[in-house]
Structures are given as C-alpha cells and as structure tokens.
Specification:
mainly alpha; 11 helices; globular
C-alpha cells in the first residue's frame, strides 16, 4: 500500500523549486544557520533593554521566528503554492503518510532517548522554564513557527535539492544536519561541551521521518504538519513531567 501511495503522489514531486528560489534560498539558509541567531538575537536584546519591554526568551523567539517565517514565505512563495496544490490533490494519501510518520517519529525518538549517552538534553528543562514564563509564546515557537521555518529549509530546500540524483544522500544530509543543528548550541555549555553533540542521536528519527514524509507525499506541508505534531507531543511531555 505504501508503494502505491508513493507512486501516486511522487508523480508530481518534480519540479518544485525554481532556480531563483534555489539561489536565494541557499543564501538565506546560510544566514539562518550562521548569522541570524547572533545578529537578530542581539538586536532584539538591545531593543528589549532600550525599550524596557522585559520580554522572556520565548517571547523574543516568537518575534524572531515570526519575522524569519515571513521572509521564508516571501523567498519560497511559488514553492509553497505548488506544495499546497500537491497536498490538495493527494490529501488522503498524505494523511496516511502523516499518521505513519507520527507513530514512527514517536517510537524512534523514544528509542534514541533511551540510549545511555550520559548527557541529559537541556532542551527539556528549557521547554519547562519557557513554558512557565510564557506558555502561549512557547507553544507558538516550539510547535508552529520553528517547525514551519525549518521544514521549508531542511526538507524543501536541502532535501529537495539533493533528492533527484542522490536520494540516499538527501536523507543522510537532511536528517544529519537537522540533528546537529538542533544541538550544536549546547556545546557552549561548560557542563556539556562537545559531548552535547551526542544529543543529535535523539533528533535523527525526527529528521528521517520528516524527510520520508516529504519524499513520499511530495508536499512540504506533510512534514511540516508532522513536525508540528511531534513537537507538540514533546513539549507536552516536558511540561507534564516537569
């Protein structure tokens, strides 16, 4: 059944990204990874200090990711319109793919989290603290804004650019960079250091199932919805067990 769904949906998989979207998208992706977290974060902190806004971390991140999402939507407008068309034409298969990916993502993440690495994921405690300070902003960032931005970039741009000629490489690079991008900032923690990179194992299932859901469904909205559902489950778990 899965192969039939893949065959039915993937007939519309290519082409999706225009040349302009690829050129501008790669530049934007580099800025997102290496410039925006430092530049925009500093600007928002400066405004917070000057204007005495007293924003929490979650509220600051809400502003940041909302602006980034608007910029991503502007860059990938045609791509997103095409993805919406594919989703409308293949909604039922995409819904099935979403369900399979949700179960696989939950199971895979739980299995990876059970591996004894000796390193505790600080994101869990971070979710709890941010939720305590600003619950609505935390849900907005963790469940909606960040997944929307990153699925367009990691799956739509990165996976989509590699898939045509190097499908296995597309999976490895998309999931691998996503996993590393989710934990590299923790290496600055003096208590964790380079050992924080071991936490990337916990994010590999998420990267793989979202890549698979995009590959099979052909629409970036499928991994986007899948990522939002999984992030919602992880945030709820962090809050309930806190």
């Amino acid at each position: 059944m899965e192969m039939e769904l893949a065959g039915k949906v993937n007939q519309n998989w290519r082409p999706q990204l225009t040349r302009w979207e690829k050129r501008v998208g790669w530049c934007f992706f580099a800025l997102y990874l290496f410039v925006f977290p430092f530049l925009v974060g500093g600007v928002l902190r400066l405004l917070d200090e000057r204007l005495a806004l007293e924003l929490t971390l979650a509220q600051t991140n809400t502003i940041y990711y909302a602006v980034v999402l608007l910029l991503v939507a502007a860059v990938f407008w045609d791509f997103l319109r095409h993805a919406a068309k594919i989703l409308r034409e293949n909604f039922r298969p995409s819904l099935f793919i979403f369900g399979v990916g949700l179960l696989a993502g939950l199971a895979g993440t739980c299995l990876m989290a059970a591996i004894p690495t000796g390193v505790e994921n600080p994101a869990i405690q971070g979710y709890r603290e941010q939720h305590y300070m600003a619950a609505a902003a935390t849900w907005a960032v963790v469940v909606v804004l960040r997944p929307a931005v990153e699925e367009i970039l990691y799956r739509g741009l990165l996976f989509g650019s590699l898939r045509k000629g190097h499908r296995a490489l597309a999976y490895a690079v998309s999931a691998g960079l996503f996993a590393l991008g989710s934990v590299w900032q923790h290496t600055a923690d003096p208590e964790l250091g380079p050992a924080a990179l071991l936490l990337a194992l916990q994010y590999l299932p998420l990267g793989l199932v979202t890549a698979w859901s995009y590959d099979v469904s052909g629409s970036v909205y499928t991994p986007m919805a899948l990522r939002m559902a999984l992030q919602g489950a992880f945030l709820a778990f962090a809050v309930v067990t806190g």
